[in-house]
Amino acid sequence: MLALLVVFTTCSFGALNQVMGAISDAGPYPASYALFSSTFTQPAIPDVVTDFHGHFIQHKWDVNVSHVASGYWYNSATHGKVRVDETYDGAFASSLFDYTDVNAKGQVLNKLWTVQPSVGSPPTCFTEHLPDPAFPLVTSDLLKSNQAVFGGVVNDPVVGYAQSWNLLYGGSIPVVVYLNQKDLLVGFDFWGAERRTKVVNRFFNTAVSSIDGEVFDNFPCKSPDH
After folding, report:
1. Of 55, 111, 118, 180, which has the fewest CB atoms closer than 10 Å, so is most exposed?
2. For 17-36, how does the pLDDT look when each residue is reduced to its tens digit (9 = 90+)?
3. DSSP-assigned states of every residue in 177-217
């Protein structure tokens, strides 16, 4: 019995050490970033890289749907616009979020151009102002203006080690933002209360550079007032 107790205790402490090691792992970040470290301190909220383009993968689901999409996107705080090109389940789509066109309700203009179910199908357009765009405009003060709080370091299976920050987007939508060591966005997760929808986004192969305005010009869908 004593031998069994020793084995059980050893295994229990071994498992506990593994768990504590995992949650105290700061990876390439300072030891003060480790949540269960005696040296932990809340890091200063960083400024976020603003103008970039790269690949993304997204999974959105609730009790009724599971939707996976991938593609390429452009974020330009300089132009105040985000363009998302994606493919999913027999469809090609391009979506433009124009943060320079906000109505009196604070809603952002979104234009969505879609071709489905085949590449020979005629394209369709959706144009409307949205209260909570799926792709926010990443500005340098994204975390500061939303009073984000540090959530610890995670070792994500897609993007590796990242610092996580928690905020309420628009004051109501819980969002977790993931940044790399250079304060570049590598992912964000959010969930909607109305339908209990979860959305996971990961970004990779990202190039940091200014974006030519032509990327956003001549979008095929007309604005609502045209």
Report:
1. 118
2. 444 445 568 999 999 999 99
3. EEE-TTS-EEEEEEEETTTTEEEEEEEEEEEES---GGGTT
